[in-house]
Amino acid sequence: MAMMVEVGEDGARNDEKRPAVEVSDETAHQISTDPWYQVGFVLTTGINSSYVLGYSGSIMVPLGWIGGVVGLLLAAAISLNANVLIARLHNVGGKRQIRYRDLAGHIYGRKMYCLTWALQYVNLFMINTGYIILAGQALKAIYVLYRDDGALKLPYCIAIAGVVCALFAFGIPHLSALRIWLGFSTFFSFVYIVIAFVLSLRDGLNSQKRDYSIPASHWDRIFSTIGAIANLVFAYNTGMLPEIQATIKEPAIKNMEKALWFQFTVGGLPLYAVTFMGYWAYGSSTSSYLLNSVHGPVWVKTVANVASFLQTVIALHIFASPMYEYLDTKYGRGGSPFALKNILFRIIVRGGYLTINTLLSALLPFLGDFMSLTGALSTFPLTFVLANHMYLMANMKKLSVPRKAWHWLNVLGFSSLALIAAISAVRLVTVDSKTYHLFADI
Questions:
Q1: Phi, psi of 437 (to 5 degrees)
Q2: Averaged pLDDT score across all residues of the chain
Q3: 348, 50 in Cβ contact below 8 A?
Q4: What is the mean pLDDT of residues 348-363?
C-alpha cells in the first residue's frame, strides 16, 4: 500500500510549495519485532567489527596520543548526539519512517529523497567493500602464517571472501533473522579483540623503544590528519539508523535511545581497548591491520584471524540489509523466505550485488582510503549534516534561538569538514593507486 507523505504542523516548510513524496509502507522484511538489546548488539557489532583492527594505524598514527584519544572520545559524544536526533525523528508525520530516504523525503521533498537514497547506498556499498577487503586480509594473514611463498595473493583471498559472504547472504533473509548470529558475532569480536590486546600488551612490554612521532611531511601530515578525522566519524556511525530502528519494538524512540546508549558506552569499550593498546605497543609503525603487527604462537594468531574473517561475514550482512530490503520488497515474491523461488531470487540478486563489491575490493584494496572516503562522502552528510538540519526543520517552531543556532553551527561545520575530508580522501586514493598497481597484493 502506498501513501502520500507530507510534513505536518511541526514541519518548517510550506507543503503547497513542495510536491509530496510517494513512498511505500510495504516491506519484505520484519518491522517492530526486536527487543532493544538485540538492536543494541546490532549496533555494537558494527562498531566492533574487524575495522577496529585498523584504527591504531588509521587514527592513532596520524593523530598521535592526544589527538587520537581526544578525537575518539569527542567523536563518540558527537555521534551519540547526532544519532539520538535521528532516532527522535522516527515518528515524524504520525507514522514510523522505516527508511532514511523516507524521512528525508517527508521533511524536504522528492529531490532530497533521491539524494539521500544515493548518499546512503554509496555509504553502505563502500562499507561493504571495506568488509570484503578486511575478510580477504584475514584469509591472507592465515595463509602467510603457514606458507609465505606468495602463491595465494590478496585478490584471490578477496574473491574467496566474497563467495563466503554471498553464501551467508543467501541464507539470512532479513536483518531480524540474524538473532543467534549476533551472539556468534559478539563471540568472534571478543576473540580477536582479546587476542590482539594480549599479544600487543606482551609485545609492548618486551619492546625497548617505541616511536610515537607522527610520520609525514608537512602537507602529507595535513592530509593524513584530515583522513583520520573522517575515520573517527566512520568508526561510530552506520548511515542506516532508521532502517535499524524500524526493527525495534514499540516504543521505538525510547527503545532506540537505550540501544544507542548501550552502543556508545559498553559497546565502545572493546574499540578503545584494542585501538589504544595497539598504538601503545607499536607506535608509528602500527600496521593498518593490527594482527599483522602482533607476535605470538601461530595457532593463536590463526584463531584471531579466523574469528576476524567470520565476524566480518556477519557484519557485512547488517550494512547490506537496506539494499537487500529494497530489492526484496520491489522485485521479490511473497511467501516463505525459504521457499525455493525466494532462495533463487536471493542467489541471483544478492550474488550480483556482492560480485560488484568483491570486484571493486580486489581492484583497489586500500582499506584506510575507503574508510576516509566513506566518512567524507556519506557518513558526514548523513549522520551529522542531515541529522541536525532535519531536526531543525521538523522542530523549527519549538526550538529556542540558542538551540537553532547550535544546530545551524553543526550543519555548517560538518558540511565544511565533509568537503575538506572528501578532497583529502580522493588524494589518498590517487596516491595509493600510483604506488600500488590494480589488484595489488598488499
A1: -75, 165
A2: 84
A3: no
A4: 89
Q: How many CB atoms lie within 10 A of CB 81?
A: 15
| CA–CA distance, 211 with 224 (Å, rounded to integer) | 18
More confident call, 199 vs 427: 199
Tell me which H or E stretch contains 41: helix 36-47
Instruction: Please give the Cα distance from 371 to 233 (Å, whole number).
Output: 9
* Rounded Cα distance, 411 and 82, in Å: 11
Q: What are phi and psi of 89, to 5 degrees?
A: -95, 5
CA dihedral sign, ordered 239, 122, 165, 277: negative
Q: Examine the pLDDT at 38 and tell me if it is beyond 70.
A: yes
CATH number at residue 211: 1.20.1740.10
Cα angle 87-89-95, degrees, rounded to a multiple of 5: 110
Q: Is residue 244 situated within a structural domain? A: yes
222 within a domain of the structure (yes/no): yes
Quick check: helix, strand or coil at residue 5?
strand
CB neighbours of 9 closer than 8 A, spacing ≥ 6?
A: none
Query: What count of other Cβ atoms lies within 10 Å of the Cβ of residue 266?
Result: 11
- Residue 442 belongs to some domain of the structure: no
Distances (CA, A) of 119 to 293, 371, 384: 35, 15, 13
Buried b (16+ CB within 10 A) or exposed e, 399-414: beeeeeeebeebbeeb
Supply the pTM of this predicted model: 0.83
Residue 440 lies in a domain: no
Q: How would residue 240 be classed by pLDDT, with cut points 50, 70 and 90?
A: confident
Q: What is the pLDDT of residue 407?
A: 92
Q: Are 156 and 358 in contact (CB under 8 A)?
A: no
Counted domains in the chain: 1
Q: Say how far apart CA 291 and CA 344 lie, in whole Å.
A: 37
Domain that holds residue 282: 2-435
Q: For 185, how many CA atoms within 13 A lie in the half-sphere containing its CB?
A: 25
List all residues 6 or more positions away from 280 whose beta carbon is below 8 Å from its beta carbon.
Answer: 200, 204, 210
Largest CA-CA distance found in the chain, in angstroms, rounded: 71
Angle at 17 between CA 16 and CA 20, to 5 degrees: 70
Question: Measured between alpha carbons, how far is 82 from 105 in angstroms, rounded to an integer?
Answer: 19
The model's pLDDT over 297-318, given as tens digits with 9 standing for 90+, comes to: 999 999 999 999 999 999 898 8
